[in-house]
Amino acid sequence: MQAFRTLTSGVMPLDRVNVDTDQIIPKQFLKRIERTGYGEFLFFDWRKDPAFELNNPRYKGAEILVAGKNFGCGSSREHAAWALSDYGFRCVIGSTFADIFHSNAGKNGILLVTLPEEQVQTLLDRAAKNDGYRLTVSLEENTITDGQGFSTGFSIDPFRRYCLLEGLDDIGLTLRHTGALDTYEKQHDAAFWVAPRAS
Amino acid sequence: MSSNPKTLFEKVWESHLVAEPPNEPALLYIDLHLVHEVTSPQAFEGLRMTGRKLRRPDRTIATVDHNVPTTANRLIIEDAIAAKQIDTLRKNCADFGVELFDVQSPNQGIVHVIGPELGFTKPGMTIVCGDSHTSTHGAFGALAFGIGTSEVEHVMATQCLPQSKPKTFRIAVEGELPDGVTAKDVALGIIGRIGTDGATGHVIEYAGSAIRSLSMEGRMTLCNMSIEAGARAGMIAPDETTFAYLKGRKFSPQGEHWEKAVAEWRSLASDEGAKFDRELIIPAIELAPYVTWGTSPGMVVAVTDVVPDPAATANDADRRGFERALEYMNLKAGTPIEEVTIERVFIGSCTNSRIEDLRAAAKVVTGYHVHPSVHAMVVPGSQLVKAQAESEGLDAIFREAGFEWREPGCSMCLGMNPDILQPGERCASTSNRNFEGRQGRGGRTHLVSPMMAAAAAVLGHFTDVRTWEFKKEEVLA
Ligand code: SF4
User: Of A67, A123, B120, B239, which has the fewest beta carbons less than 10 angstroms from its beta carbon?
Assistant: First the structure.
């Protein structure tokens, strides 16, 4: 996984609430068995509207997305995170995120930053109004600044932060506990009332 | 009262802790991993690439549901990409030793329908699946939640998952549910009250006399939609209803093991005095049959209401979302819901495709015919549900009334197979998501209970099932 440290980039504002994963990547692209190549299908249906933000040359190359509350709700499809990351987004800023999407994003090196709704609105407005608007997101410092007076700190789960900073593979981390796992499993396998198949 | 009262969630959580490393999420053991064709190929591929094994094939089961055609000749899948995905699952299951309930298996069905009906799902378990509606299994007092594909791979490799401890949210529905108000309406009523992000970061425990009186099918419907309220999972403490459902299921404990298992399961209920992070009490009498009018499950009103007015919304961002939804749905504020006409009806999905759902819908359509301008279909959740329904003659009732009677699968819940809405078509659906394009690009979805969908099929518009005139069951003979 690619590590996330500090990112300075253009910003795409997506001033919509409850952006669900069906919109981020519609179902017809979930039939593929690969992990890559989803970027071109990001927001597939919305993109058909020429006025949609993704079609605005001003936001071309933006690696930071700012969106309304409850971003990533709905289906557990990790394809949503793959599509965002494959398209080039490395950070999403919003006031709340759905739980499963949060975890999927982290596993793909995408930093999700939660800010109060008013601050998100400020960023949405500034990104939409100022040509060439850029933000610097520092995970090392836990700060976001725009060089035009906007500056804020943000909090993030310390372990998620650590994994993103180091670009760590989760499975590898779990395998450090193989001893504990073996011990637990041996004793737990006796609990037939929670075994999938009756003994 | 015990000295250290615990919630149902805490009991299941604590009994599955493998490790609690400092400053890291806990490592949670997973009892059952359900796998389907859509979210697993990249995970199996990950195992191959890293040379890792599937740690516990015996705790893993697979089925095909999302992509499969629901027509009679379903063995031939015309969509080459879908066919490849299903073949990939077959190969992966063979290579890694996973039991697969394939298309021709008498146990095939939607993953969240077959887990419980075969007795894989049990109280006190931890259950995951690469599908958000895994919350369904919480109806049995299991801790069950949806995961992404990276986590699917993680569980395959290690049989555990790093998890931060969620908060707890007790929602009690007290009193008797009015006639015509079903578990689906309880779910929609709750989401309407707390919003689609109302339970984010929480595990809901449903409690109260109205919940206790629900059948297992109803409890599954309710827990299924926990995710639509943003919850990590929904749970209901196991009781006599749960045990009666599980007894004699294919993979349930048998003989002397049965009594011992029941004793273990009985101890799972939240202790008196257990603390929840949040609590909400809803009087059952306040609930009604609901219909969603927008593109998020929280956009919901009682069937007797009108399409609401965005102007009444205080928050700017919400109001814009509201207006967008009305535009997409082609609805005007102030229109009575009962005047909204539909062209399609879908009775199915992991929310409402179980035997009780089909019985309830059949009862409504008995002696009636589907409205001439409506195309209606019933898609049973599994082969077992289908066989049961056919043995009760429900298929005949539906067919005679003009419904299509299909083979099991996810079908028009998300339209990954050929069952989709055409642009602009309006559908009364018993599924769980009314997102833009969910059932087909440009399609307009209204979420309702099976009875409400059946009544809408007959009249061609929504109607309040509380006033439905049920006809005698003479056609059953
Ligand atoms: S029926 Fe619908 S919600 Fe349920 S698993 Fe299938 S696609 Fe998902």
Answer: B239
